[in-house]
Amino acid sequence: MEDQIFRRSAGAWQQSLTSLLDLARLLTNRGWNVATECPGWSVRDVISHVIGMERELLGDPRPIHALPTDLAHVRDEHGRRNEVQVDVRRCHTGPEMLAELEETLRRRQRAIEAERRGDDDVVATPWGARPLGELLRMRAFDVWVHEQDVRRAVRVPANLDSPAALIARDVLLAGLAGAIAGRVADGATVVLDVQGPVEFLRTVRVEDGVGRLQEQVPLAPDAQLTFDWELFARLACGRIRPAAADVKVEGDEALARQVLGGFAVTR
User: Which residues belong to any copy of the MDMPI C-terminal domain (predicted)?
Assistant: First the structure.
């Protein structure tokens, strides 16, 4: 069985996680505590989340840990689940965090190199059964998003056009097609014009309540939104509010604002 998605995603995942590790090696004690755009999370918290998710995929037991009751950014069971791996590490020092990240990367690399299953083989995960290719694709996406959270927080930009960034583009566009369909009427066409390190032009056409991505751009779309790649990703990942974003809007402005109001497809 071909495993092209798995191998391509594994390479993107490894590049982004290695890049995050290299960045972590540069952090000062203060740098670990800098707030990120990920609600409620510092640099330490973001890296704790990445470590925790990868360790769960290695089969390590989840920490037994009682969360504080006053965490305003934790709003549902999914958030509480993620927060356990984060909160349990809030007392860890920078060197302890770095050592754990290094060890986790080594173990996960060995596990991925030893993997012999293909893209469509369903594997058990802490979040339910998933096709192997899709699992690694989403890990590459998640690690890249959090790498960028850390980079923006400590003001060390890089990797905006990495292999995982291209995976992020496709994941976010797929999510946006559905999100836009849920907010506009049938027949509407919305053009997304993204410029910068990752550049693309896509149309979302809504038909029968379904958003369909197209590379063809109509002569007169109902609305066109233009942004740079980093801003597009920040909006789609819920890192910035639409009101604070410098988005160029053409066409039906009310429709465009309606689309932007539901632009965050992940968090």
Answer: 170-256
Contacts of 196 (CB under 8 A, 6+ apart): 160, 228, 229, 230
CATH number for the domain whose boundaries are 4-158: 1.20.120.450
Summarised one tens digit per residue, pLDDT across range 94-130 is 999 999 999 999 999 999 999 999 999 999 888 889 9
pLDDT tens digits, 168-212: 999 999 999 999 999 999 999 999 999 999 999 999 999 999 999
Look up the CATH superfamily of 165-261. SCP2 sterol-binding domain (3.30.1050.10)
Report the alpha-carbon angle 70-71-76, nearest 5. Answer: 115
Contact of 265 with 232, CB cutoff 8 Å: no
CA distances from 117 to 114, 121, 133, 187, 239 (A): 9, 6, 9, 42, 35
Residue pair 201/213 in contact by the 8 Å Cβ criterion: no
